[in-house]
Amino acid sequence: MIILSDECKKCNYICNAIYFQQNFESWTSGNDDIDKFIQGTQLSAHYSTKGALEWIPYNRFNDIKYIEKIGVYITNWIDGYVYDWDYKNQSWERKDQNIYVILKCFNIIETIVSEFENSKTTIHKIYGITQEPQTKNYMMILNNTCKKCNYECNVTHYQQDFKNWTSSNNDIDRFIQDTQLSAHKYTTSALEWIPYDRFYNIKYIAKGGFSKIYKANWIDGYIHKWDKYNNNWERQDKNMFVALKNLNDSKNITLDFMNELIFHHEVEFDHGSVKFYGITQDPETNNYVMVLEYADDGSLRKYLDKNFNKLNWKSKIICLNEIITELEFIHENDLIHRDLHIGNILKFQYKTAITDMGLCKPANCDMQKNNVYGVLTYIAPEILQGKIYTKAADIY
């Protein structure tokens, strides 16, 4: 236990500056100017530790990755930064263990002094200085900020977690990561890789042309926002119902499979259609599975079978308008659904939404070799005559 008797002459009590000062002999950077600079910041930290730098041994970082030519690296800082003095344990209390930080090389002391002064008026924070043992280069430790937002936005938090998950498929990993790297302000556009064991009560409910649909409870619920106090994602709707769309033979990834993921994400994100939460994998079949918003009332066909006689004209018009608006949005994005029928329209408590983008194609896609898919009674006559799919065929 550290016993201190010297009070700070400025504060008239044992403040942060005294605790830092008592530790001066236990570290050195090997450079007098750097030592004096660090000590100067610590001796000025009377009331708050925010302005105090540390000398941080290089072995307190792991998983160091080179990211820029000018000597910039991203890494995990094992200990996290000094937050406050712990009187009970007589040691520094630290926060954000294993936090991602940036290591940036510098050649002269004036560089770090300038960066430190600039950090006082910007969101960029300098935690301290370290030294790479092989090159002997000194490096400043900076907070990991988004270059677009100039602060630690959702993207930085998603990025920090990339090494903790994989779908075992590079295309899917890249797709999920791309959605996360675009989610600067809001998490609604970001997908997740969700381990299959995070679902329970999995029950088969329907079969489509290229998939099987299951209903399940999702233990964790979806990501809502970053909890800066607990340094983790805050989630909502734990144990919520979701639909698991198990895509046939998807263990062997095809272009059509990736297109369904991409098109569904585009429509859901831009238009608020059927929510797409993430992707998982069935451990028995190895098929990939889309994790989607569960439709309380099922398909429009099922809904009408049960409720048609109860619906008034206003309800019918609202439902029809929602379908028209959804299809209009798909067409405005130069996409053709190609499999639009009453079974691929879902009825929720507060909305009607088009789903199943498995056969969706760009309007300018070369479809000369036109295979006929879908429910016969909903296929436009010109398609049965061998003509190509158009937006008009969707409307039929």
Automatic annotation (TrEMBL):
InterPro entries according to UniProt: Kinase-like_dom_sf, Prot_kinase_dom, Ser-Thr/Tyr_kinase_cat_dom, Ser_Thr_kinase_AGC
Protein kinase domain boundaries: 199-396
Pfam families the UniProt entry points to: PK_Tyr_Ser-Thr
Swiss-Prot/TrEMBL GO biological process terms: intracellular signal transduction
Catalysis performed (reactions): L-seryl-[protein] + ATP = O-phospho-L-seryl-[protein] + ADP + H(+); L-threonyl-[protein] + ATP = O-phospho-L-threonyl-[protein] + ADP + H(+)
Name recorded for this polypeptide: non-specific serine/threonine protein kinase
EC class of the enzyme, as a word: transferase
GO molecular function, one term: protein serine/threonine kinase activity
Keywords recorded for this protein, A-Z: ATP-binding, Kinase, Nucleotide-binding, Serine/threonine-protein kinase, Transferase
Lineage start: Eukaryota, Fungi, Fungi incertae sedis, Mucoromycota, Glomeromycotina
EC number assigned by the record: 2.7.11.1
